[in-house]
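The material for today's practical consists of a large collection of protein records. There is nothing in a record beyond a sequence line and a structure line. Backbone structure tokens are a discrete shorthand for how the chain folds in space. Nothing more is needed to start thinking about how sequence determines fold. As an example, a complete record with its sequence and its structure tokens follows.
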Amino acid sequence: MGRPAAVLALVLGFTGWGCDRSEIITFNDIDHKLYVIDKDTYEMEALADLSGGFALTNPSALTFTTSEKYAEDLYLHADGTTPSGRALYEVNISDPLSPTVVMLGDCPRCGGGMAMCKDGLLYSVYGDEATLSHLYIIDPVTVDATWVGCLGFFTGNVGLACEPTTDELYTFSQREDALFTVDKTTGQATQVGLQAGLNIPGGIGLEFDPLNPFKLYLAAMMDPAYHLYELDPATGLPTHLRDLPNGERNLGARIVEDKD
């Protein structure tokens, strides 16, 4: 597939945005809190408690509503009292001590992976064994799904992320045990490198560090525990970083102001 996006970023001299820093966010399905994962120690610190209001259970995807700096709103796909039993929620964490959660509507095509890219579109991968997996664009206002195209196989559980310099879409497939790029205009997936050798049995979260296109994180349910990995965007090969003992399998990322 030619040079990987991360190498292109190096050629372009991408260095980030001055004194800003990035945060990797995850959602705990047991205590219903958002956590920040320290990128040096991989320790986790509670950010916001979402246990009030809606019962945000069995989440399958998490992404911030914008790729712009200082994002305070995110989308979360989880169980809901809707016809499909799944709903899209918008969460505001401008005040982490008093976050707000709004159900946007029934979202049967939000699938297991969602990503808001710099092109301003919310992408999702959804499918089943009978219909293979497909790329959709979700309208957050109406929660309608627009079909883009078929990835070419059934992914199983899936993570989705946009590379921060090129806005290229990446996905990790549970069934194929591999990293792929996804064409945003056709939905066609192209494998990156080798199979990861993880054999993930359950849920997946995928996210790039928005200030470092060489850093691609994967959260996965490895029965009975959950784990955090770093994937090489050029080869798709994983490095284990830490255990995630409390059901954290969804990842998001944002750029925040460094006030230190």
Summary: The first helix runs from residue 5 to 11. The radius of gyration is 17 Å.
